[in-house]
Amino acid sequence: MKEKLEKAWLKVGKFLLWALLAALCGCLAYMVFVHRHVILAAIKGEPLPECPEGSCCHAFCKKK
């Protein structure tokens, strides 16, 4: 009985680990997609794009 319980918890742990990794990869892909213009401007050495009106994204805003 104890071995079955340990195997079950091991399966649950593996599932949670894979779910966490999938969520992290999804968040990373979303952040790269949203900030792709800023990333490309930084790589090319160009000035940052202008902040869209009504945007609360700090990546577009220039430091004062």
Descriptive keywords:
64 residues; mainly alpha; 66% helix
Radius of gyration: 21 Å
For the residues shown, what is the average pLDDT? 84
Report the span from N to C terminus.
65 Å
Specify the biggest β-sheet: none
Would you spell out the secondary-structure blueprint of this structure?
Layout: H1 2-34, H2 36-44
Overall description:
The protein has 64 residues and is mainly α. The chain has helices at residues 2-34, 36-44. The longest helix has 33 residues, at 2-34.
Short description:
This protein has 64 residues and is mainly alpha-helical. The chain is 66% helix and 0% strand.
